[in-house]
Amino acid sequence: MIFKPFMREGFMPLPVTFISTISTDGIRNIAPYSCIMPVLRPLDLICLASARKRDTLVNIRKTREFVVNMIGTSLADKVIPTAKYSPPETDEFELTGLEEKPSCKIQAPGIVGAYAWMECELFKEYEETNYILVMGKVLRLEVADDALSVDGGLNIQKARPLMMTGSQKGMHFCSVADIGHFEPFGAMFPDGNDPIIKHNKS
Ligand SMILES: Cc1cc2nc3c(=O)[nH]c(=O)nc-3n(C[C@H](O)[C@H](O)[C@H](O)COP(=O)(O)O)c2cc1C
Predict the structure, then answer these.
(1) How far apart are CA 183 and CA 7, in angstroms?
(2) CA of 32 to the centre of ligand 1 (A)
(3) Any ligand 1 atom below 6 A from CB of 93
(4) Of the chain's two ends, which shows fewer C-beta atoms within 10 Å, N or C?
């Protein structure tokens, strides 16, 4: 079957993250963002695509900071309440009953119940007529201890990352499954050594 090119995201499951920001007046904002990706390993940059009419974008531009909250399936029922339009003067933590997790490096708070938090500062923007790519530098990355596996990676069964695929009718929410297949990064290189392994140490 052939689909229209704009349907591309329907066939690449996307993470559902919550971006939390704070306005210059101290109003706390939350919005789901799925068009988000890290910029290459081992950089500390993360890139999200934002439409123009977003309080999130206004707040990021004014305060130069935001938190990427990685959420699990337990917060699926907060996606629509945070995605629905609400005026910029609405505190979306109060609106949705989500609790704030104070950040360490920035003013914008994270969200209690997420399994990981990336405190970011605005690094650069790429602007087009209808959208803006916002690049953030991750200043601090915290992962809930109970979402970690013994090898220090993400415990998929515990974190149950919330994902989404689109169809012509709407959004289908899902999670990911561990298929038990592991490869070291070094497997990609002829000598078996990962040239950037030293960056992995915290
Ligand atoms: C699952 C999901 C993912 C979304 N991803 C994005 C996105 O990547 N970029 C974007 O601009 N809007 C995205 N949206 C729409 C915004 O979340 C929505 O317009 C929200 O009201 C914006 O809030 P704000 O004005 O407080 O920033 C998404 C919505 C949903 C439900």
Answers:
(1) 31
(2) 5
(3) no
(4) N
